[in-house]
Amino acid sequence: MAVLNSPSLIRLFRARVIVLILTCSFVLCVVWNLENKTPEISTELMTDQTLEYFLSQGKIQVKDAADIEWAHAANSKNKITEALQSSAHMIEADILLRSNDPKEPIMAHPPETDSDVTLRDWLKEVKASDKGIKLDFKSLTAVAPSMVLLDEVRAELRGPVWINADILPGPGGKATPLDPKVFLEAAVTPGSHGDVLSLGWTTGWTADTHNPGYSWEMVREMEAMCRTLRHPVTFPVRAALLAHSFSQLHWLLQQSDRSNSMRSQDVVPALLKHLILLISCSQDGRTFCRYSLTIWTGHTDVFVVKDLLPYRSDIDKTRIYYDLLDSQRTQLKGLTGY
C-alpha cells in the first residue's frame, strides 16, 4: 500500500493524466479548425440510403445491394407503366431536351430526339409509387430544367433519386462525356441534398479484340472530381471491362473511407489520424462510406460472370449494385462464393 501511495507514482500518474488531457485537447482543436476553416470539407456524412429505404419498405430482406432490381429505358408511356407494375425497385430512364418546340426535357435515348412522354408527366407517374428513380442525362442542356421539375415534386417522391451522367472518357469510349463541372453545377441543387450522384466514364466494347479496363489515370481523375462533393456517389462500371480493373476500382472505393476524415495528412500527426477518422466517419458504432459501384452491361457484351466474384467477395456487399441482365444475375447468384 505504501508503494502504491509513494510520491513518485502519484507524480507519474498525474503526468500521464496531463499528457492525455493535452493530447485530447489537441485533437479536438485540430478537428474544430478543420471543420470551421476549410470550406470545401463537409462535416456531414452524406451516405447512400437506397438499401435502408427498401429494407424499411420490406422490399428486400437483407442489406445486400445485389438484391436491388432495375427496370431499364422507361422512356415511353408504355414502358413506364410496365416498369411501375414490375418487381423492379429502381426505374431508369434517359433524358434529352426536345429538339423542336416546345423545348422541354423528354424521356428519350439518342439517336431518338422526341418521345411520347415528357419528364414532367413521367414524374407525375412515378411519384405515386414507392419505387426509386435513376435519371440518366444524355445532354447538358437538359440538366438544369430537369432539376427544376424534379425539385417541384421532391416532397411527393418516396423512393431514392439517382442522377446519372458519363462525365469522363473511359476505356474504349467514343462518345463525348458531359462536361463534369457544368453538369455538377446544374445537378447539385439545394433540393438534391439526398440524391445519389451516379458518375461514370464513356466506354466501349468490341467483340474478338482486347478491351482494356479502367486505368489508374481514369480512376484518379474521377476521385479528384468527386473528392469535395457532399453527395453519395456511385460509379457505373461496365461488367465486360472489370476483369483487369479490380485494383483500380477497389482503390477508388477506399478513397471515400478517407474522404470524411477531413484529409488531414499534412496537419495531423500520424498517430492521431486514426482517431480523427473514427470521430468523423462513424456514427452509432457504424462506419459510413460515400462511394459505391454499379456494375452494368451492354446487351451485346460478352464477359465471364465469374470474373465479378472478386468484387463480391472482397468488397462490402452494400457497396456494389448489379444492374445486369436477368440471366446474368441468376448465374451470379448461383456461383460458389456468391
TrEMBL record:
Task: Cite the InterPro entries for this sequence.
Answer: Menorin_dom
Q: Where does the record place the Menorin-like domain?
A: 64-259, 289-328
Has UniProt tagged this entry with the keyword Transmembrane helix? yes
> Which Pfam family is one of this chain's hits?
Menorin_N
- What GO terms fall under cellular component here? extracellular space
Q: Transmembrane region positions?
A: 12-34
Q: Which UniProt keywords apply?
A: Membrane, Transmembrane, Transmembrane helix
Domain of life, per the record?
Eukaryota
Question: Has the keyword Cell cycle been applied to this entry?
Answer: no
Identify its protein family.
Answer: Belongs to the menorin family.
Q: By what name is this protein known?
A: Menorin-like domain-containing protein
Encoding gene (name): FAM151B
